Amino acid sequence: KAGVTQTPRYLIKTRGQQVTLSCSPISGHRSVSWYQQTPGQGLQFLFEYFSETQRNKGNFPGRFSGRQFSNSRSEMNVSTLELGDSALYLCASSLEGLHLPTDTQYFGPGTRLTVL
Amino acid sequence: AQSVTQLDSHVSVSEGTPVLLRCNYSSSYSPSLFWYVQHPNKGLQLLLKYTSAATLVKGINGFEAEFKKSETSFHLTKPSAHMSDAAEYFCVVSDQSNYQLIWGAGTKLIIKP
Fold first, then answer.
1. How confident is the model over A11-29, as pLDDT tens digits?
2. CB interface of A with B, residues 37-76, below 8 Å
């Protein structure tokens, strides 16, 4: 089975712009979660989508949004970029998602976003 | 609320010697606990998970962890370090109150030749 894929791998944007990141989960997985990873804050949960519905959301401003399509692929959008949004954005897929504590999350390689 | 503390930000060992990465957790529920590894410029990979079955959990690449409820610990060990083990390791607890994963700050494992 192919793993979780994320595109693009690297992105450079300027302040005020918006960006869309894409995540393709493992075939058959219905849950996609997004995380932001920075050296200072570590890994922080953004949101989880399950069967096209946002099921859970972390403590991020409304500039961060996402969606999931019927084939379980997910996109994450950040509007009005700020310097502090520079980070590695990781997505993870799983069969049943975070509501099942024992479910294993499989991570993609991430998208490195740099905001200038 | 659940929380997880990785007691060392960096651990340095010589190749062939044992590895110990320490993790303490706080949980109101019977927790699910995980260890993930992240190699440079790569995504996160699950090493092992504890889900209230056996307290000694074996994972990939020779790693194992022991769940100790009385000590609220879930330390990761490996008998003999290999150069390829150099990476960052994350201890994670599943927060069943809000269905999120709570991540430790990470421990960078350095292997000396």
1. 999 999 999 999 999 999 9
2. 42-45, 48, 55-56, 58
